[in-house]
Amino acid sequence: MKNEPGQKPGDAGSSDAGNDKLSVVMGELCPVCSQKSLALTEREQEVPYFGKVLLFSMSCSNCKFHKADIECAEEHEPASYSIEVSGADDMSIRVVKSSQATVKVPYVADIEPGEASNGYVTNIEGILQRIKHQIEVIRDTEEDDAAVKKAKNLLKKINRAVSGEEKLKIILEDPTGNSAIISDKAIVQKMAGKIKDKKILS
Ligand SMILES: [Zn+2]
Q1: Entry pTM
Q2: C-alpha dihedral (8, 82, 119, 92), degrees to nearest 10
Q3: Each residue of 93-113: pLDDT tens digit?
Q4: CA 24 to centroid of ligand 1, rounded, Å
Q5: In the predicted model, is pLDDT for residue 91 greater than 80?
Q6: Calpha distance 157→164 (Å, rounded)
Q7: What ranges do the domains of the chain cover?
């Protein structure tokens, strides 16, 4: 797979936004604070070796409510992806993750699907940054010494994986088929599907 040096950790952002179709609607009613301060965006992005992905987001400038999700333009089989990552070369591997996907890093932490979950196009580094952030919150808020110590050890483990000193397995499961790890290294298995969820903005 081709590396994309311009692509920063994380999300398909401004760097390639120039090629994408973007539509923005401002001043919609926020479902949380009921002010007309919600911005809706819809963007189309071509993900190499995967296809066209639609990215939706809702952001409220008043109460800071934010929700994002993705949907594939073409239907994909519900699938489970697993990959062993070890170092810098793997950090730029593209990941498409919908709000219905579960990301598991065994013996470290999971990103759970559901209402509070967002969908995004990112890369392995972006996934690890999110996992790190979850663990940092535990480290900074947990009062139990053992839990804080465990969190610190997990952060070290992730940092070692990022620098190639340790291998880390990442599993991505999505019964809607809207997610993928885009690499020859990823092992793909079909999984039982469910009715495709409608997009979050209607
Ligand atoms: Zn609001």
Answers
A1: 0.82
A2: 10
A3: 999 999 999 999 999 999 999
A4: 17
A5: yes
A6: 11
A7: 14-190
Q: Which residues contact 183 (CB under 8 A, 6 or more apart)?
A: 1, 83, 90, 93, 94
Give me ligand 1 centre to Cα 27, in Å: 11
Token digits for 158? 């992730």
| Angle in degrees, CA 61, 67, 73, rounded to 5 | 125
- The listed CATH number (3.30.420.10, 2.60.120.1040, 3.90.1720.10, 2.10.260.10) that belongs to domain 14-190: 2.60.120.1040
Sheet holding 120-123, edge to edge: 120-123, 94-97, 180-182
Residue 172 has pLDDT above 50, yes or no: yes
In this prediction, residue 193 carries a pLDDT of: 67
The Å distance, Cα 99 to ligand 1 centre, comes to 20
Average pLDDT over residues 58-77: 94
Q: How far is the CA of 71 from the centre of ligand 1 (A)?
A: 24
> Residue 87: its pLDDT value, please?
85
Burial class (CB in 10 A: 0-12, 13-18, 19+), 72: buried
From ligand 1's centre to the CA of 160, what distance in Å? 39
Given a cut of 70, whether residue 73 has pLDDT beyond it is yes
Q: Can you read off the two tokens belonging to residue 54? A: 């639609």
47 or 6: whose pLDDT is higher?
Answer: 47
Whether pLDDT at 10 is above 60: no
